[in-house]
Amino acid sequence: MKEKTKVLLIICDGLGGRPVESMGGLTPLEVARTPNLDRLAANGISGLMDTIRPGVVPGSDVAHLAILGYDPYEVYTGRGPFEAAGVGIELKAGDIAFRCNFASVDDAGIVTDRRAGRIKDASPFDDVISAIELDDAKVLFKAGTEHRGALVLRGEGLSAAVGPLDPKKEGKPLKECKPLDDTPEAARTARILNQFSAKAREALEAHPLNEQRRADGKLPANAILIRGAGVVPHIPDFEERFELKAACISGAAFYAGIARSMGMDIVTVDGATGGLDTDVGVKITGACELLDKGYDMVFVHVKATDNLGHDGKAIEKAAMIERIDDALEAMPPEGTLLVLTGDHSTPCEMKNHSADPVPILMSGPGVRTDAVDTFGERPAMTGGLGRIRGIEVVPTFLGITGRAKKYGA
Amino acid sequence: MKEKTKVLLIICDGLGGRPVESMGGLTPLEVARTPNLDRLAANGISGLMDTIRPGVVPGSDVAHLAILGYDPYEVYTGRGPFEAAGVGIELKAGDIAFRCNFASVDDAGIVTDRRAGRIKDASPFDDVISAIELDDAKVLFKAGTEHRGALVLRGEGLSAAVGPLDPKKEGKPLKECKPLDDTPEAARTARILNQFSAKAREALEAHPLNEQRRADGKLPANAILIRGAGVVPHIPDFEERFELKAACISGAAFYAGIARSMGMDIVTVDGATGGLDTDVGVKITGACELLDKGYDMVFVHVKATDNLGHDGKAIEKAAMIERIDDALEAMPPEGTLLVLTGDHSTPCEMKNHSADPVPILMSGPGVRTDAVDTFGERPAMTGGLGRIRGIEVVPTFLGITGRAKKYGA
User: Fold this and answer.
1) How many CB pairs under 8 A join A and B?
2) Which of A219, B11, B24, B232 has its CA 20 to 30 A from that of B45?
3) Reduced to 3 states, what is the DSSP secondary structure of residue A47?
4) In A, residues 383-402, which contact B (CB 8 Å cutoff)?
5) A254 Cβ partners below 8 Å, 6+ apart?
6) Burial class (CB in 10 A: 0-12, 13-18, 19+), A116
7) Of the candidates A368, A384, A409, which has its C-beta nearest B18's C-beta?
8) Proportion of chain B above pLDDT 70, given as a percent
9) Is omega for the bond preceding B233 within 30 degrees of 0, making it cis?
10) Which residues pair with A50 in a beta bridge?
């Protein structure tokens, strides 16, 4: 039997943009010199994707759920569970998960730095934080990259209906956690979180790494800011759902966490950082090796395009897109459908996510090519995919690769 | 009052395709010389239709339900009821219907030919099969074209949750019918079907037509293969639903069965065979006569395009499309909107249905013409209808012909 076409899915975070006046009214994607993306568009089919639906500004979590085939209105409970899965905490459905920042607070309890002096590695704190004993819940804690981390509370009678302890701004005191509804579970969880916060401050103040940081003239990581509460949802297994054995390559742990929540294998490659210095080439090469080794689909995530959108750096965003393009010279691999898109637009003038639809292209065996021969927001408007939704991406490539199921007879 | 615009709906089964390498990357529809379809596209509006939704491979039954304005997720129960309606059995909601093949089995009960030596007319068996008496159900049976037929069980406490008796392959024994759930109704229906199967074999073995066939050196039609169980659904009347008095012309009984289930009148014309030898011209002429006689809509079904897709015959599929085009010279009739599409794609390389959307065109009075001037998968990508769903076809042409209802005030 002929082997079925495989799928390489590349999501460039925040890929879409808006016309930039100083770029002659072109978007960073349109102004970038992208011979490989243009060739893939010319040999493929393009379109525009509303990740959720027109006029909804997608967060990265719900955006990835939708593009990977899950209705976020059914499975999304908050960002915490994906942060926790991303740092490698083994979750159980029903756990309450939070995203955390290590921060610096002064003696009066005022947050002086929400990133604890941009601490590089907070993992030495994991043991003392995880050892914190609470009245009614078990603590699971892991630091992530830089100042980030994730907290999980496990126990009976907990709720995700609790407000953040993160004041969101510097110069303000740590917030007290408040329940968001009238249930005893929310009241109980707020109480537990306030207890955790106090005990974490004590443990961190006394930690030798903070003594060392103070001695080095650095800000201490002496508090944990908590937000993004979510009850860990049951997310059906991706392979069972779509009959695709899938792996994920992502420098940023959060996206790997989303993939891990779906049961995908997470593969790390040297040089994939989730930052501007990421090596897109090794991610693509790594993905091709995984496809050769028997995976049906590999999902590669590139974060830097979004960061540059948030920073409003249009020229740098265009340059990053050119670096992604360089890595696509040998694409698509034989017998593979390449699917490339963003999870949402992050226009440089807005320095934030927007509801503008994102260009998407599919190139490889079985594709009905269209007349589009460059990749960009405006060329994609006349593409053969038309305007699709994020939730339709997986069904569409299952159809092209001959893996879709028949309904009826 | 001016007479309302009428509708001629032509569904060419399996019309859509994919680029064929040996045809210079064109599809059979694109490569075919179709001056009439191109003229209709130039004077009309085109688009692409996902019969169900992107990434769903439509079976012919659910595809026709959707295009004719019924949500298959609401009314579809299985193929059997449409086969039964197609051969002319008068159905009642709640009947359990099956599609059947006459087959040849040897003395050991092994199926040696699933089509009973390609028997031309099995209707002489109707009386003895219909006379079979079962413990708890009434039998209604009719042969269809060639080896095909339909069985209906009528009675209290029956279920469609029963597996097939058809082994699907030659060289295997007739399967025993098994219940598919734990209900007493399913167990009872399975038992009744096994009883029917045994009695049908006895009755067929002893039938004079089989003695004659054996004497002529032909395979006997001495068993009935049963599959496609479905409880006869309540399908709301098409004329009541859409205020269109409608008729159907189809060479293949199954499609007429779908139309009959909706209450459409079924009209037979000489030369409409459901096969490659069908006379498309007489179908179109017949349809025009029906529109003259007072029908508001006529649905014409052409099967051969699908057969050639299943057989992988791209050149022949293109030639069949040219024959269809020849029949469209005088189209559309005055005061009539012509709507032409397929029920799904059947790409020759896949030899099966696919999820690729199907081109659709509407041409006639009241249409907002677009810039598309040829009919094909790729020209339709930029058409004015955009990308629509099967369930939107009837509402769209009701709108164009001024028959749609106002919502609000």
Assistant:
1) 87
2) B24
3) strand
4) 383-384, 386-388, 392, 394-400, 402
5) A60, A61, A79, A82, A83, A86
6) buried
7) A368
8) 100
9) no
10) A389
pLDDT at A145: 86
**Which of B23, B255, B350, B356 to mutate against chain A (most A CBs within 10 Å)?**
B356
Residue with tokens 């001037």, as numbered in its chain: B373
Classify B157 as helix, strand or coil. Answer: coil
A236 phi-psi bin (left φ>0, alpha ψ -120 to 50, beta other): beta
> How far is A279 from A285, CA to CA, in rounded Å?
10
Interface of B with A in 67-126 (CB under 8 A): 72, 76, 78-79
CB atoms within 10 A of CB B154: 17
What average pLDDT score do residues A140-163 get?
95
The confidence score (pLDDT) of residue B249 equals 97
Would you list the DSSP string of A158-208?
Answer: --S-B--S--SSTTSBPPPP-BSSS-HHHHHHHHHHHHHHHHHHHHHHT-H
First to last CA, chain A: 23
For each of the domains in chain A, give its residue range(s) and CATH number, in order of start. 6-76+235-400 (3.40.720.10), 82-231 (no CATH)
Q: Does A19 touch chain B (CB under 8 A)?
A: no
Encoded tokens for B284: 């179109």
CA distance B57 to chain A (A): 4
Q: Which residues pair with A231 in a beta bridge?
A: A96
The span from the CA of B383 to the CA of B48, in Å, is 8
pLDDT tens, residue by residue, B316-335: 999 999 999 999 999 999 99
Q: What is the ipTM of this complex?
A: 0.89
Residue B1 above 80 pLDDT?
no
Contact between B236 and B74 under an 8 Å Cβ cutoff? The reply is: no
Q: How many C-beta atoms lie closer than 10 Å to residue A26's C-beta?
A: 19
Query: How far is the C-alpha of A138 from the C-alpha of A132, rounded, in Å?
Result: 9
Q: What is the pLDDT of residue A48?
A: 98
Contact indicator for A269, A249 with CB cutoff of 8 Å = yes
Strand A406-407 to B386-389 pairing: unpaired
Name all contacts of A263-271 with Cβ < 8 Å and 24+ positions apart.
A263/A235, A263/A237, A263/A238, A263/A239, A264/A238, A264/A239, A264/A299, A265/A295
Residue B348: closest CA among chain A residues belongs to which residue? A366
> Three-state SS for A141?
strand
pTM of the model: 0.91
Closest CA to A407 of B406, B354, B221, B269: B354
